[in-house]
Write a structure and sequence with these properties.
heterodimer; A: alpha/beta; two-stranded antiparallel sheet; 12 helices; globular; B: mainly alpha; 6 helices; disordered N terminus
Amino acid sequence: MNDAYLETTILTNLLLKPGSKKQQAAKFALGRYGETFLPVYSIKEWKNGPLDHYAYVHDKLLQTKSLSNTIGAINSLSPFFAGYKKSTSFEALEAATRLGGRDSATISPPDLDRQLADRYRLALASLIFRSWKKRRSVATKTIQDLDCYIEAKPKLDRNGYFDLKPQKCDSERECTLANQLKQRPDLLKKLRDAIPESSSRDEDKNRRKVLKQLINTPKRTLTEEQCRFLGDAVFAFFCPAHAIILTTNLKDHAPLAQAIDKVAQKP
Amino acid sequence: MATSTMTDTIITFPKPAARPIPPVRETGIALRDATQLAVPFIKPRRGSASATTPSAIPIDVLYPATKESAPDVVTALDLLAKAIKLLEDARQANKKTDMVLADRYVQRFQSSLSSLFERRSIGDGYGVIINSLHFALVNQHGQPLSYDQLTASWRILKELRNGPFIQFEEALDRVAELEASGLQVDPVAISDFLNDDEEENE
């Protein structure tokens, strides 16, 4: 199989981790394949996940005008409410801005804090807008457009805060993927069986529940929320037969892919 | 120039005294001294001025160094002029394959970036360009800039000096041009804000 189907983590590493080893690895991996496919579902999840988190950090920097207060605020968030949050340190972020010469040693701490807040705020805004512009050019083809989802460009409101709406699909209509999913109950059963029944993870429980509904009561409408709960199963289901699923999260994707005779690989 | 048909005497008009004007290069317009020109006012186009927009009123006329002028703008224009000169000198040195000299000019240019960023109250468009150049140099880790990178930086700073109140979205186009020249314009540490727990641990 010489083609790759890009999962959300790959899009994240390519666009939101500039200059990192993970970005390098993702770029290098893409070069191994003849064709690379980016499903719009990836874009949707990426916008609603990591891109939204960057926008949140940007807005917090704008609100506080202080890098240290922003870090304090982010670090205080429960991981339950902020899945993409990571503990960061002021020192690491400050060190990363040093250019030498007349450096931070000559600036008062409050001024330095404010300057760093502006530096990262501007850098985040720049990265968010530029990565949005690049999103459809990371793969050789962007595929599987979703009728129920509008890919709207991020905006800044009049106060300078990010507005990423819409981040969810149109809830007035059934999920675009529903029809195709319901046509293959055999695959849905295999996917369901690949998720351990004993798993305590909410992600697994929700996924099993939605798959069960699709199998047993196909006439019921698949809602926008349920589509999101399907998550990783969507990639396994919709990955073209001649492609591998490229992801950094093999732990979740490999069993699902394997269940329906597909392959997941890391960069 | 006037020509007399009777005596074939060519009359030339006196030229003004030479002033330290940066010469016109491949793009952009010369940045002239405020006292030199008397040109008709042309209503500027909507959006920010750029080096390719024929702005009739020189930037130094619009923002003369007087007591009433916004200090940040005036200082930024002065700093930008110096930064542009340094990059021009670096380009010339690079063209002559004097890479050490070129890098020395870049080191001095690099030293000016903090002061330029202190004037970011001008606007986020201005701020994001200066900030991107800052991180581009951080990410070079001391590696000299190539001729293309020098040219992109120089050209964009010239445009910025000509239109310091650039709109943010247009400024992002300039940042993209810096990136296209091979500069890494984003702080690598930015991904420190993002959790990697979703990924399988080695």
